[in-house]
Amino acid sequence: MLVMKFGGSSVANCAQIDKVLDIVRSRANRAPVVVCSAHKGITDALVNAARAAASGTYEPERVIDRQLAIARELGCDDALLAPLFQEIRDLLRGVHLVKELSPRSLDYVSSFGERMSVRVIADYFARRGLNAAAHDVWDLGFVTDACFGSARPLVGFESRVKAAFAALSPATVPIVTGFIGKNERGEITTVGRNGSDLTATLLGAALGAHEVEIWSDTDGVMTADPSVVRSARNIPTMRFDEAAELAYFGSRVLHPSTLLPAMSAHIPVRVLNTNRPEHPGTLIVESATSAASSVTSIAYKERQFVLTISSTRMFGEGGFLADVFATCQRHGVVVDLVTTSEVSISLTGNQREPLERAAAELRGMGEVTLVEGRTIVAVVGQHLVSRPGLGAEILRAVAKAGVNVEVLSYARGSINLSLVIADADVDRAVSVLHRELFESA
Ligand code: ASP
Ligand code: MG
Fold this sequence. Notes:
Elements: E1 2-6, H1 14-26, E2 32-36, H2 42-54, H3 61-73, H4 82-98, H5 103-110, H6 112-127, E3 132-135, E4 143-144, H7 157-166, E5 173-177, E6 180-183, E7 188-190, H8 196-207, E8 211-216, E9 237-239, H9 240-248, H10 259-265, E10 269-273, E11 282-285, E12 297-310, H11 320-330, E13 338-340, E14 344-349, H12 352-362, E15 367-380, H13 390-400, E16 407-409, E17 416-422, H14 426-439
Parallel strand pairs: 1-2, 1-8, 2-5, 3-5, 4-6, 8-10, 9-11
Antiparallel strand pairs: 6-7, 10-11, 12-14, 12-15, 13-14, 15-17, 16-17
Helix pairs in contact: 2-3, 2-4, 7-8, 8-10, 11-12, 13-14
Bound molecules: aspartic acid and magnesium ion.
Magnesium ion binds near residues 7 and 8.
């Protein structure tokens, strides 16, 4: 069995969905399970409509018209989506009346994108001669916790998923919603924005798939963001941990949690380009070995905050770090990078309010600064550990470009060297690093 996930741009319109049809047909003999995102832009439009409704503007027809145009372009009967359109109107009416949008309501509104896209895609496929049927993933055993906005399936959901899929006709390709789920009370949840990748690997792991294919619009995972570095190139194979670091540190190709289920179930993940299906893309596996000289990729994450606390109390005293992190935890700060010296600690995070609350409390322990507008640049590769001088090359390159490094993080045996720089310096830093690490002999 093969799980294939198609992202929003892959199912944006009729021309794209035609490409998807050809790709699914080419895998027909591998028992494909197709997981789809909403059409590009629809989830954003739903979220905007929900926010507008909560602040007084009831405008369901904008997103409905957009979806309807795609459905009509694909030749679907208007009746196909009419019940969902009515549900959107009713729900937004409710949000508009009570003027509040809880995380639960937001998940409910967001869920329509995938519910609509799988219906039009399956309907179109069937009319084009591919036997296909649309499924809301919650009808296939995907039961989650009640963490709206970042729900995860309940322990043991795998057997429910297996049983549900076993009952489907093997002659019909299931077209399944990504991104959404339901909790045990039957309330709609989502796994988080861009989460359809994660749905795909979770289903793949539950079903013991041979492989999970993630179809998007780049030639697999690239050595750097191709919109910043024009000479960025494809990475043919990489290890799970390398891909996970990259996803976490801003590579836009994969959702950060995507690889965990595949990793623990030992299922290879292949990242492919819907617009160039003949390109081999990137194969992510447990033990890919790359040339000893190479780093794997450069990723970056903008709009970060750096909190620094300096105190002579740290000097020679135990428990200071524990106090700082306990404070961060109390205020819900998610920490990405940490560096410490004898008298100061710097840490990064990306949510202003929790950091401001933590900073206020930490002022009782020392001198605290909180700066914004910073970017984490991560250089990732399994050979960082063993290639002498690589750190020097990285810093020299960045210095040559006139970019100031404010924080630097690298641990023993790490596959990720991270720098914190100003947001304004990102393009320069990433381009020069790419040139130095990938383009010079
Ligand atoms: N449609 C959802 C989003 O835009 C999930 C996804 O595309 O993966 O976030
Ligand atoms: Mg996506």
